[in-house]
Amino acid sequence: MIGIDLGIVVIGLACLVGTVRMVLGPTDADRAVAGDLLFFGVIGLVALVGVRTASPFTFDLVLVAALVGFLGALSLARALTRGKR
């Protein structure tokens, strides 16, 4: 359980750094990457808290959120490049 608690703290700090980068990022691309970091950091926190509490429904929530986050990251990258390949 100490490893899970340590992971929660480390991911929480990464989310905090991602939030700062999202606010202070000089370009839209920096903000987008920081938003992805924050989103997937929160998914990691949900997964670790689910393991810590032994919740059987957490895996389903994490799986769906990860798929939505991945598709959101793709669409945001497409919007930032204005459709160029």
What level of helicity do the residues show? over 70%
Distance between the termini: 45 Å
Would you tell me the overall average pLDDT? 90
Individual helix count? 3
Into which percentage range does the β-strand content fall?
Answer: under 5%
Q: Report the biggest beta sheet as strand number plus sense, adding barrel if it closes.
A: none
**What low-confidence regions span 5 or more consecutive residues with pLDDT below 50?**
none
Q: In sequence order, what are the helices and strands, one letter per element?
A: HHH
Radius of gyration: 15 Å
Q: Give the helix/strand class.
A: mainly alpha
Query: What is the general shape?
Result: flat
Count of extended strands: 0
